[in-house]
Inverse folding.
């Protein structure tokens, strides 16, 4: 793991306005090459924290930087550039169903300013190779398994060489075997230098693949980065 900081929260208050604080005094750091889990009950603040990270909502107070952007002072014109450095992997895939795998990726490249056809095709080949789907370029999303579709989503996230991946319940719709494959893939991506923030309710993954844990609890974030805290998985499932 690198010492280079990708996400830094220092006594941050998360919410939608001063009358609707969701999380208080949030402090943690995520480094390049690090994978961290975020867990917590439904409505505990996980989604609001993610929205703060990609500048959909502004922090109410505290010091907060993501990919070297100060989110307390970020200008609206800077937000698209932040989001090129911060890729999001969703639970529900959000692939364009009327386009092939390659066309889904090409759409993103064109939307983010890529111009040269050969360069774009080379990049598509590269990311699909990374996720083990180079032979699926001409497939339609409905022809793929759930695990394969999530791999396409990860390939899409990798297109612009992000510094951070926010994985929002990436295994939520997958079977156990596919879930483990997706975790292993994201872990490999982290080892290659990308910081991965892995939101999950899949506590079997935490048990099988230990990593630092941040837990939304009592309107703040509890750090279990040394795996010293016993996590009550049953209570989190309530």
């Amino acid at each position: 793991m690198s010492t280079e900081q990708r996400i830094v929260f220092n006594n941050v208050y998360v919410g939608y306005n001063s009358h609707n604080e969701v999380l208080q005094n949030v402090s943690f750091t995520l480094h390049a090459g690090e994978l961290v889990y975020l867990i917590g009950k439904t409505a505990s603040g996980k989604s609001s924290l993610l929205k703060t990270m990609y500048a959909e909502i502004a922090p109410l107070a505290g010091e907060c930087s993501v990919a070297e952007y100060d989110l307390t002072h970020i200008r609206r014109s800077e937000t698209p550039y932040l989001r090129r450095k911060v890729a999001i992997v969703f639970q529900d895939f959000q692939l364009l169903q009327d386009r092939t795998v390659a066309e889904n990726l090409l759409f993103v490249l064109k939307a983010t300013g890529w111009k040269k056809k050969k360069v774009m095709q080379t990049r598509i080949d590269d990311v699909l190779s990374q996720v083990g789907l180079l032979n699926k370029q001409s497939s339609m999303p409905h022809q793929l398994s759930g695990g394969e579709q999530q791999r396409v989503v990860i390939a899409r996230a990798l297109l612009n060489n992000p510094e951070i991946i926010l994985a929002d319940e990436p295994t939520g719709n997958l079977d156990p075997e596919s879930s483990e494959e997706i975790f292993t893939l994201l872990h490999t991506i982290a080892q290659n230098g990308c910081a991965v923030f892995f939101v999950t309710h899949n506590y079997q993954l935490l048990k099988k693949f230990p990593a630092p844990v941040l837990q939304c609890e009592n309107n703040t974030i509890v750090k279990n980065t040394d795996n010293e805290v016993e996590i009550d998985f049953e209570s989190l499932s309530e």
Summary: The chain has one domain: 5-236. The chain has eight helices and ten strands. The chain has a mean pLDDT of 90. The first strand starts at residue 5 and ends at 15.
